[in-house]
């Protein structure tokens, strides 16, 4: 009877966590959308700026938003930098601590500013970290064991992913596949993850509607086209490994600049560039979810698509390396879509693709690049299905995704969140071992070591 009572309380807590995350996540997304549209409209229409004056004003606004976001992170919660997923995985493994009291406000406000500035960052990272922080707050309140607490961290993170993309099944699978090393499996903990994801999805859909987040329905494609999807997977496997290595190189390079000069110089430059691009070339800014759907429907020339690929790849590296709050899920999906369209358009110039073949390749590319960068092919397949609603091309998406993951592994690729967690731990150890480390002096109010 005591066990039953304990389970009821635990499951009830999971439902409350999920519903709360759905509410907070929806508020976060609404705020990002409003602010991201609001400040450019104000400069353009409200103030009537045009030409160079508009670009200068936009550059200054975006740079200011970026710098304030970074200041909040570095001053109050360094662990709130980046997506937050490595932090949650580290906490589930007992290697990191979730300081929810400072992470929650910094992740919300800092993420609001960073994403609204036009940075090429995703909103799923902040909502996952926010979700896990809410779960930690509930766990602390209830006084549960470390095992139960770690399971609730996963439940809160899954609820955050469900709120970000309206994809509850992919959120549950994310816990199973991505945190397979850390998640404490049992019937009790697994049910808690499912309940949190479902309750988050219910709240989210009641606010935003039940339409797929990136609706792009494509019917079946002929089986004779399947080899084209396999080759796409082979290409994306190599691209994913290159993406991860370039991201780490970018983080290390920017960190060296920060240690030598100032951690605010590079973010200020990126913010200025992003502000100009918001008006000059909006395709190179923001998370890119809407862009991905738009490009898949428009059929732009190969040269333009290739330019967008280069710009978005570069701006993703630059944006994430600033150290502000923001994820990489959405940028990866948008980049993948554009790569898939480039690939399909190139083929179509030689051999005509069937109807909707181009869109099918764009959708499959999402799963492929997700699998090679994040290292979770099953999540990639299900996430793409839930995001687009294109269940008719499940098999081609599976082919692209699994072959991409196979190539990434054969090239020595590792999941990006695993790499980022290892990097964070290494930097922390390096700071502790340094003669000038804060550990050798009175401890500051908050940790100041740079975190990926």
UniProtKB/TrEMBL annotation:
Region (Disordered): 432-452
Keyword Electron transport: no
Topology of this chain in the membrane: Multi-pass membrane protein
NCBIfam families the record matches: PRK05277.1
SUPFAM superfamilies, per the entry: Clc chloride channel (SSF81340)
Chain coiled-coil ranges: none
Organism per entry: Ancylobacter pratisalsi
Keyword Plastid: no
Protein name, UniProt field: H(+)/Cl(-) exchange transporter ClcA
Keyword set, alphabetical order: Chloride, Ion transport, Membrane, Transmembrane, Transmembrane helix, Transport
Transmembrane segments: 7-32, 52-73, 151-176, 188-218, 225-243, 263-281, 328-353, 360-385, 391-408
Gene Ontology terms for molecular function: voltage-gated chloride channel activity
